Structure formats: C-alpha cells, structure tokens
C-alpha cells in the first residue's frame, strides 16, 4: 500500500472502542504555559489562553491522537514551572479550567488524552526541596542541567494518596471532555522510579519482585477505572523499552509489563526509553538509523506479546517511508511524534494531503533540540512564526535567544527562566 494511505488508516482501540482517525500521535511534551507563582502554589497550573491556543493549533494539524502533557497530579512534584496541574486539593475548578483546552484540541475530530505524572525524585531542587520516591535515592546533580535533593521514601499512605490523585485527575479530565488519560510510566518519573530495581529498593509489597515494583501502576489503573467506570474512557501508558542504565528497568521487565497492561485493558501502550540520567532521544544503535524509530527493534520483540492493546512507538520518526514501514511490518500501529510537531504543528495534515513526505531537518546539536522545541511551542502558542531549525539562520537565532542576545515571543504566563533542557 502507498505509505500515505497506510498512515491515513484509522485504528480502533480495543477496549474503549474509540477510533484514532489516522496513525499519528502527538507525544506528551511539557508546555510550560500555565500559571506559575512560586509564592502562591495554590494558584499554579491553571490553563492559560496561550495553552489553549497551542492545542487549537495542534488540533488543526490533524494528529489523530493528541496527548496533553505533562500534567502533574501533585503541585509540589512538578516536572517544571508552568506545568498544567490537576491536584485534588486545588481550590479552583479544574474541570471548567480544562474544558477549553480539550475542546480546542478536539475541534477537528482528533482524540485527546492527557499525560498524568508525578516527578518523584526528578523534581528539581528549585521546585521542591523535599522530593519523594519509591526509596531514598537521588537524581544526580547536573542531569538535564538541574540540581536535585535526595528523595525520601514514600510511606504506604503516601503511595495510596498518589494513586488516588491519579484517579482524581482522571475524573477531572473525563468531566472536562477528554477521551482518556495516559500514565507517565517512562523517562525516570515516579512510576518509572517504582518500576526500576535501581531506584526501587523497597522490601514491602511495593518493591522487590516485578509484581511488587509494578503494583503501583496496576493499582492506579484500577483506581482510575473505579472513578471513571465508562469503558469508553481510554487508558494508556507511556513506558520505557529500557532505562539504558545498569540495574534499571529492562527488556524483560518491559515484556512482562506489556502483557499485564493488556490484561488490565489498557488500550494504548506508548514505547519510549531512558531517564534524566540516560537520554534516549537519539539512536542508541547503528541498526535503527535506516528505520528512524529509536525503539523499533524493541517494539518488534514486544508486539508478539500483544493481541489487543495498540502499540505506539515514539522517537526518531521523521519520514513517511520509515513510518509506514513500521506499520506495515507490524512493529507498531501508531507513530508517535515529538520534536517534529514543535517545528511544524501541522505536519500530519501536510503529510496526509501529500504536500510533504516528511519533517523538516533539525540542524541543531542534539543538546539544544529540546530547549529549542520548548521555544517553538511558545512561539506556536503566541501565533508567532516558529523558529526554522532546518536552517543555519534559524539555529543561530535559537543560540542567540539562549545566550540572552535576543528576546523570544514567550507568552506572559511563561516568563520564568527555562531551567534545564526541558525534556521530560
Ligand atoms: C520539548 C519537549 C518536551 C517533552 N516533554 C515530555 C513530557 O512531558 N512527557 C513525555 O513523556 N515525554 C516528553 N518529551 C519526549 C517526547 O514525548 C518524545 O518521546 C521524544 O521527543 C522523542 O520523540 P521525537 O524524536 O519525535 O522528538 C518531550 C520532548 C520534547 C522535545
């Protein structure tokens, strides 16, 4: 079949019955566009006009499934200043606050889910001096350009509270009109900290065996379903194929995980990799370069373990040939995109209308690509022209902004320093 025809095919999700209108997924990307006032935490995390406008643009761009992200469920354990927050102790009405962004993203028939997260030990020191995690461990200083305090091991009560927070946030999103939620189980965040034997040193029912390390994920899924019994509400998770660090979550864990996620009626599993300590948003092996997707070889080994849940692979895809190839080979059914949708929010539309055969090149060095993507997100949200990182001039402009030589069109709501590189 012609590659564009392959990418145009809808996919029905097995448990919710919802239909993704094409093969593209906008992967969760921290927007940092919501209210932020370190002296008034209760007022942080409210969706702003800029945030809504960003999702209006992504909705117009025809990415079949749009993942809002990342949305912390606890206002103290943020990925970054400016995150949208759904905290059960919010004094403001989160349902009303999230309705406009969900409506904007869905206006052109796309499905919208939100990535719910808790940064755990990856909460930077300037956000919280008292991070918590599965065990008392510390994210090394300098990871992602930030410093971190040693985390305190969560009590049993705190674990159940975190589970309840994920369920609460899911109900908010359901009432706000979202099609579902995605748990952030990847990239070294709290769930990933529980899953990894390197960061989970517990000896109680939440640590040790794979069953115990993954318990928090499955209890969270159960709690969400209890709060939102409507089966049409999509349950999804983003997980690592591998942490790429000794003693971390590995392929054997990932295989056990996908099988259990399917049994738990999770519609969509998004495969990624790495943590703050080991970036995985670039090729780890020569052999995947031609196929573009960083994790396609892992996905090839995971797919036979799945009979119903839909698999999405995110990372590295840029051109229609390799994207369609991953689908026709049955590596995955959905293609996740990150950085390309910051440079070109309407890339899927342009591909489906056969105006282009792939994303523009990114000539920036890898270390600058993530922070550049945040600046592009802010430019999209402000209706400004988006930095063209396919040219030397565009790349130089980003360099000038980062060195403070040039101002960037960042929305008022986002006028706090861009600490770290912004990846999550
Ligand atoms: C600016 C930016 C922010 C990101 N924030 C998140 C996030 O909040 N949650 C997440 O799971 N991944 C996040 N990621 C990772 C992307 O979702 C994606 O997995 C990664 O960029 C690889 O895909 P790509 O090669 O198409 O960019 C972020 C990436 C970028 C560029």
Automatic annotation (TrEMBL):
Keywords: Flavoprotein, FMN, Oxidoreductase
Region feature (Disordered): 400-424
Gene3D superfamilies, per database record: Aldolase class I (3.20.20.70)
Sequence ranges assigned to domain NADH:flavin oxidoreductase/NADH oxidase N-terminal in this UniProt record: 18-353
PANTHER family assigned: BINDING OXIDOREDUCTASE, PUTATIVE (AFU_ORTHOLOGUE AFUA_2G08260)-RELATED, NADH:FLAVIN OXIDOREDUCTASE_NADH OXIDASE N-TERMINAL DOMAIN-CONTAINING PROTEIN
InterPro entries named among the record's database cross-references: Aldolase_TIM (IPR013785), NADH_flavin_oxidoreductase (IPR051799), OxRdtase_FMN_N (IPR001155)
Record flagged with keyword Oxidoreductase: yes
Gene Ontology MF terms in the entry: FMN binding; oxidoreductase activity
Protein name as catalogued: FMN-linked oxidoreductase
Protein source organism: Heliocybe sulcata
Entry's family note: Belongs to the NADH:flavin oxidoreductase/NADH oxidase family.
């Amino acid at each position: 079949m012609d590659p564009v025809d392959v990418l145009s095919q809808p996919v029905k999700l097995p448990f919710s019955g919802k239909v993704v209108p094409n093969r593209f997924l906008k992967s969760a990307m921290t927007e940092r566009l919501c209210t932020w006032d370190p002296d008034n935490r209760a007022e942080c995390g409210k969706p702003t006009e800029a945030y809504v406008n960003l999702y209006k643009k992504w909705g117009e761009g025809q990415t079949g499934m749009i993942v809002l992200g990342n949305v912390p469920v606890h206002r103290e354990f943020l990925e970054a200043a400016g995150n949208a927050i759904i905290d059960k102790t919010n004094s403001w009405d989160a349902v009303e606050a999230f309705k406009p962004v969900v409506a904007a993203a869905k206006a052109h028939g796309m499905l919208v889910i939100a990535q719910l997260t808790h940064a755990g030990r990856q909460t930077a020191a300037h956000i919280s001096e008292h991070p918590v995690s599965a065990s008392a461990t510390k994210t090394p200083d300098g990871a992602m350009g930030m410093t971190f305090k040693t985390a305190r091991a969560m009590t049993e009560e705190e674990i159940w509270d975190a589970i309840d927070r994920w369920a609460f946030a899911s109900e908010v999103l359901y009432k706000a009109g979202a099609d579902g939620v995605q748990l952030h189980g990847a990239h070294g965040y709290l769930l990933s900290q529980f899953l990894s034997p390197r960061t989970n040193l517990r000896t109680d029912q939440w640590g040790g065996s794979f069953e115990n390390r993954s318990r928090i994920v499955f209890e969270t899924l159960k709690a969400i379903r209890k709060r939102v019994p409507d089966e049409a509400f999509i349950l999804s998770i983003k997980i690592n194929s591998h942490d790429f660090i000794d003693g971390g979550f590995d392929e054997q864990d990932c295989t056990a995980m996908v099988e259990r996620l399917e049994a738990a009626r999770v519609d969509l599993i998004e495969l990624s990799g790495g943590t703050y300590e080991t970036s995985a948003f670039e090729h780890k092996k020569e052999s995947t370069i031609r196929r573009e997707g960083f994790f396609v070889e892992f996905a090839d080994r995971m797919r036979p373990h799945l009979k119903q849940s839909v698999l999405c692979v995110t990372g590295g895809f840029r051109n229609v040939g390799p994207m369609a190839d991953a689908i026709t080979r049955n590596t995955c059914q959905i293609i996740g995109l990150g950085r390309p949708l910051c440079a070109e929010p309407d890339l899927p539309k342009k591909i489906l209308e056969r105006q282009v055969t792939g994303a523009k090149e990114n000539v920036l060095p890898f270390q600058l690509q993530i922070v550049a993507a945040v600046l592009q997100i802010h430019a999209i949200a402000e209706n400004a022209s988006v930095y063209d990182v396919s040219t030397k001039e565009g790349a130089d402009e980003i360099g000038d902004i980062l060195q403070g030589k040039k101002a960037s069109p960042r929305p008022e709501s986002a006028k706090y320093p861009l600490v770290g590189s912004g990846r999550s």
